[in-house]
Design a protein that fits this description.
The protein is of the alpha/beta class. It has a single domain (2-211), classed as Rossmann fold (3-Layer(aba) Sandwich), CATH 3.40.50. It contains six helices and nine strands; from the N terminus they run E-H-E-E-H-E-E-H-E-H-E-H-E-H-E.
Length: 213
Amino acid sequence: MQLKNPILGLCQQSTFMLSAAKVDQCPDDEGFEVAFAGRSNAGKSSALNTLTHASLARTSKTPGRTQLLNFFKLDDERRLVDLPGYGYAKVPIPLKLHWQRHLEAYLGGRESLKGLILMMDIRHPMTDFDLLMLDWAVASGMPMHILLTKADKLTYGAAKNTLLKVQADIRRGWGDAITIQLFSAPKRMGLEDAYTVLAGWMELADKGTETPA
């Protein structure tokens, strides 16, 4: 017998809740939220859709499509949040400033935010924007887990080498608290590790149910 990760069922029944352009439009600040952040076109929406077995987040070949904080309900206490993609040059400056202002307000003031999943394209990791997010997470004491997305675009050996290098860079610059893994939405690589992190942050880690091995 093995324990089934309790987050699986919740993710599979997840539903769109609401979109917020400002912090005061967010759901009540209670329960458990995990936010997904990443540079535009880092595979954030694809990762969310793969983890939830649904098409909750809109994917597009045009970076910067996520322009709001999008909330997805897992149960009455737990939510996933798709944050605006950042760093895309073609987004008008006023809109960039709006995102930045309200994203900072959300990240800095949200009591129910229990952790941040940061997406990095494995072919272009550790951008300036990623470094800012790492700095913020460590300074604020916010748990962070990194998905090196699009790992299927490299050979396994090259992907593993990139993982080890980024892991070492993070350990040197930000310590051991931040965790990291390989992830591929189309290949469904890394799902189990990601679910384990989500379950822990949402206090579901000890509530597994037995399923046949």
